[in-house]
Amino acid sequence: MSERNTETSRPGLEKVYNPKEVEDKLYQFWLAKNYFHAEINPARQPYTIVIPPPNVTAQLHMGHAYDNTLQDILIRFHKMRGCEAEWMPGTDHAGIATQNVMEKYLAKHEKKTRHDLGREEFVRRVWQWKEKYGAIIIDQLKKMGFACDWERTRFTMDEGLSQAVSEVFVRLYNKGLIYRGKYIINWCPRCMTALSDEETEHKETSGHLWHIKYPLYRSKKFITVATTRPETMLGDVAVAVHPEDKRYKKLIGKTAWLPILHRKIQIIADEAVDPKFGTGAVKVTPAHDPNDFLMGERHQLEPILVMNEDATMNANAGPYEGLDRLEARQRVVEQLEREDLIEKIEEHTRPVGHCYRCGTTVEPYLSTQWFVKMKPLAEPALEAVRDGRIKIRPTRWVRVYEHWMENIRDWCISRQLWWGHRIPIYYCEKDHKTASTTPPEKCMTCGSANLRQDPDVLDTWFSSWLWPFSTFGWPQDTPDLKYFYPGSTLVSGHEIIFFWVARMVMSGLEFMGDIPFRNIYLHGIVRDAVGRKMSKSLGNGIDPLDMIAKYSADAVRLSLLMLSSEGADINLSEKDFEIGRNFTNKIWNAYRFLTINLDEAIVQAANLETINAARQQNRLELADRWILSRYNQAVQRLTAALDEFHFHEAIDAVYGFFWKEYCDWYLEIIKPRLNGDDPDAKKTALVIATFVMKNTMKLLHPFAPFISEAIWRGEGAESSAALGRHESESIMISTWPEPLVGFDDDRAEAQFTLLQEVIGAIRNMRGEMNIPVGKTAEVLIAGGDGQDPAIITQHESYFEQLARTHAVKYARHLARPKQAASAVVKDFEIYLPLSDLIDVNVERNRLEKERQRLEKLLEDLNRRLYSQDFVTKAPQQVVERERQKKTDFETSLKKIVANMEQLAA
User: Fold this and answer.
1) Which of 587, 625, 767, 789 is deepest in the core (most CB within 10 A)?
2) Predicted local confidence at residue 402, as pLDDT
3) What is the Cα–Cα distance from 123 to 419, expressed in whole angstroms?
């Protein structure tokens, strides 16, 4: 929108939008009015979202900012549609993460370990730390403007939620779905705890594949096995081959010598062996490999554990006892080489598990742990998605969800930590187990009163999977639980679909008898500008709080949304936040322009009744009918997009309408009326402009809550500049716009689109011919067969305002003027005589110089691109960039040649 006519604005209204002046003030206003809180209201439909609880140790990052912006949009949208909108906030105790933070603190500041403090004191210190620092992430979320029901803030180790965790454990245990057993688990030797499969991040790691010769018993021959972890061979109990592998059929049932330790091991046949991997013969180490463990069970082989929990070798490793696993690997290989038992070593890349929290290489480790049988829980959760009770968007994630559910493995839920929910199992001296939500007085099996509780805690996700109902008071049948459950929507990153999303579906169906939410929206990850995951180690993170301070909370929200696409990752640089900042500036400038002419009467009259009256009196111009019809389209498109969770399409609808149609066209076109002598025409234009602005702020509010509220309330200006003062105290409690009945106008849109195209053609000709902005032009228009010429002749003021013309002449037939630029739009021929606008000879010389410059650049580019040396050796992106330059230069050259021809005509 042009800055003309905007120098005089309403007293107190800043020329440039200043978010620092309004954001904290407006957020405190919302809190004081209790707008974020939801109550049980039978007259209203509840709309419930539970926040993915951030770790209590967390600092706000861009992932939080994006994830919660999407939720805030939905909450504000549905609140304005009349729902009792409840957004349940809270934090997660984050077992491993929080314990790591405290252990590092103790080591750094007190030179102590948790064992120096003892369990009780260590846990007390973690609680102390949580009370001091645990609310930081909550305060940071508020900076983004999020409308959470802070009165209901929960923590996964609150008394009520802890009761829910114990209740669930005991119920599943009594049902036979929780069991204790030995199994290969993912073990982190740094955190000294078990990890679930989902907590283990697999990274492609370069290493080696050692081909080791195992001597056959009472023979000079060998059987060669291939392994990536030679240190674990010390725990081998067999060599396995495929039963149909002809190379080894005669060896099945024979005995081999285990190198170094010289232990006899059997050669067995098992169909799980891949004859194509390595040599087709594999070592069997049941205590250190999950597949070998299953094979060992099938063949009744006794596992031998050769490592301690800290990844050092134990007594079963013989001479390597006490060595770290990697040092032991090196020593074992050296010994094998001395004994000439290494056949060959190959370079080999494979996925290696790492602890999701500390990054240490995870060790497959035989351990006694607690597990949940998942198959019986997964089947109903799978059916809930297949029968449509739960809808997952984007739909491509449905198959991922189904595949995981169909192939689900039992969940290892015990963790060797001190911070977390203690497993509610109590043992007597005879090792009988009693499951109880409270400390029992005696053993349920033998009556012994001498009981000790299981030392392990539960996986953090064991409390998080209950979040949709434990937060509302379960296992008590509370009024909140009855009203707000099941939830409406879950918004989450796709990376925790297995950690959290799928498990919540299972727990909701198991304990509530109903789905936890009807819709699941899975979004992508926020990455850096080149697509890398943001991390401390890379130093490529962007702090949302810094961006809020620099650009505003609304700008951060808007930028993330405009860069997003459905469910895809976002590549982000700091410069990208200028997108949102520029939009907020555009909004503010439009508002300032309106306030020049606003008074109490106009604000009060900016309603549908006044507009309907003007329509009945035939006082609506083409531009008025067009903008109201386009406004209707924006309302319909945006509402439909949010209903289907198409967030990018929703922001595109309001952005495109407001900037490209309302500001760039309508506000410019009405300036002559606002400055003219016809009071009725001025009022009609101003009422429509104000009405559309006010209601567009409603459409914008879920995305940019601060600036929309500031305009609604007239922050920093006289009360008559408060566009929403006659409707509601806050835009947040206003009514979501509905399309205006009777204002869809295809004819007006078609006619105005034609004018836009003609005006656009004139603007393009002015630009290409280098016509000074200050010079107005005469335009000749001919033709238009099948079009109503009145579209042109009756709207000459539009051309004056938007194409800088002083005369528009129309005739059905016209001879082409000399030295005129021309264009064709539909059936109209448009001529722009140039002799009075520019010095034709000067312009011709300028174009000739530009033509020569481009031809020289193209000559150099072609020489480079025709060089095989350049095309084959230069980076591909450089070659593509040069090819794009060539295309751009050729396009520019064609335009220059065409312009020169028009000047010569």
Assistant:
1) 587
2) 97
3) 6
CATH 3.30.2320 in the chain, residue ranges: 748-838
CA distance 37 to 420: 29
Torsion from C-alpha of 108, 109, 113, 117, nearest 10 degrees: -170
Strands 414-415 vs 457-458: parallel, antiparallel or unpaired = antiparallel
CATH 1.10.287 at 842-904, yes or no = yes
Q: Closest by alpha carbon to 647, among 87, 77, 144?
A: 77
Contact (Cβ atoms closer than 8 angstroms) between residue 428 and residue 407 = no
Provide the residue count of the chain.
905
Written out in words, the top-level CATH class of the domain with range 22-164+463-551 is: alpha beta
Interior/surface letters 685-714, b for 16+ CB within 10 angstroms, e for the rest: bbbbbbbbbbbbbbbbbbbbbbbbbbbbbb
Residue type, 598: L
Going from the first residue of the chain to its last (905 residues), give the mean pLDDT of each consecutive group of 10, the final group possibly shorter. 45 78 96 98 97 90 96 99 98 91 92 94 94 90 97 97 98 97 91 83 91 94 94 96 94 95 95 90 94 93 95 96 96 96 93 86 92 97 98 96 95 94 97 96 94 96 97 98 98 93 98 98 93 83 95 98 91 96 96 89 91 94 98 98 97 98 97 92 96 98 98 79 90 97 95 93 88 90 78 90 90 83 82 82 78 87 87 84 87 79 73
* pLDDT at residue 11, as a whole number: 52
State the pLDDT at residue 721.
80
Q: State residue 703's pLDDT score.
A: 99
Topology of the domain covering 568-728: Isoleucyl-tRNA Synthetase; Domain 1 (1.10.730)
**What one-letter code names the amino acid at 573?**
S
- C-alpha to C-alpha distance for 341 and 224, rounded to whole angstroms: 9
- Which two structure tokens, joined as six digits, stand for 162? 């802890």
Calculate the alpha carbon distances from 645 to 77, 395, 855 in Å. 12, 12, 50
> Residues 559, 584: contact at Cβ < 8 Å?
no
Query: Start-end ranges of CATH 3.40.50.620 in the chain?
Result: 22-164+463-551
- pLDDT of amino acid 6: 40
Q: Three-state secondary structure along 431-443?
A: CCEEECCCCCCCC
Amino acid at 160: G
Parts of the chain belonging to CATH 1.10.730.10: 568-728
Domain 748-838 is found in CATH 2.30.30: no
Token pair, residue 371, equals: 């597990």
Amino acid identity, position 276? K
Q: Rounded distance, CA 103 to CA 106, Å?
A: 5
Q: CA–CA separation, 48 vs 486, rounded Å?
A: 8
Cα separation of 902 and 905, whole Å? 5
Domain 202-356 maps to which CATH number in 3.90.740.10, 1.20.59.10, 3.90.950.20, 1.10.760.10? 3.90.740.10
CATH 3.90.740.10 residue spans of the chain: 202-356
Measured over all CA atoms, what is the biggest interatomic distance in the chain, rounded to whole angstroms? 115
Q: Which two three-digit tokens encode residue 601?
A: 């009467």
Q: What is the 3-state composition of the chain as percent helix, strand, coil, each rounded to the nearest 5? A: 50, 20, 35
